[in-house]
Structure formats: structure tokens, C-alpha cells
What does this fold into?
Amino acid sequence: MSTPDDDWDDLDAVEPRRDPAPEIVPRPSPPDASAAPARLRFGEVALTLTVPPGTTTGLGRDPDWAPGTAAALAPHPTVSARHATVAVAADGSATVTEELPGAVNRTRLNGVDLVPGRAYPLTDGDRLWLGARISCVVTLGRRPGGPGGG
It folds into this structure.
């Protein structure tokens, strides 16, 4: 007759599982219907870039990587081809990341140099600099014609 403790002894004889555990890939969250896109208003190049919730966009001169800014920034060699990335989460919060290995002429957020590869949170009214001559003002959280929008 076996006791309940005897069953545990059998576990030691079981061969450990050798196949790798399945990779768990998080599903992207659908954009929040109330979340507004981020808007980047560049004064020096007369460009306003809209980044919808749940998307990421490149800032730079490479037309394949940064199609929204490449044409406007092409005449500005102080901006790297792949300078920075702006990501807007499904809830409308946003971050900026200077691309690795780093922009030659730096990326600054409100006067602070960014560390390449690190995401920095953006807030409404922030000023983002791509090099020394090109900047944009960040607008978050307002839908045109909606509550708090204009």
C-alpha cells in the first residue's frame, strides 16, 4: 500500500522536459478610442507630423525608414538619416528614442541630451531637437473638435 508521499518520489524519475518553452508574444493592444494622436510641429521646415495611437514613426532623412519626415529634412545634414523614433502607445502616451548607435548631432528633449537606445516619455508641450537646428513641439492628448481639442 502506498502513501501520498510515495507519489512524489516518482517525480524524481521523470525525465525533464527538453523542448524549449513556447515564446510568449504580447498581443498589441488596440488603440483606445478616446486616445488622441501625437502631433509634432516642426517650425524650421513647416511640417506637422501626426503619429496615431498604437504606432511608431521614424524621424530622419532616410525616405524608407522615415517617410513622414525625409523630404522635409533632406536638406538638413545635421539631422541623421535615422535620427530618432517616436512611439505612441494605444492609450495615447508617447516616448522618443534616439536611434542606436546614436545621432551624430544629438537629440535633445527640453534641453537634455538623450542617451541612444533609451525611451524617454513625452508630455504635451515638450520641445524635441534633432541636431542643433531642427526642433518640434509635441502635442498630446487632444482630438481636433473633441473635448479639450481645438
Confidence is low (pLDDT under 50) at residues 146-150. The two ends are 80 Å apart (CA to CA).
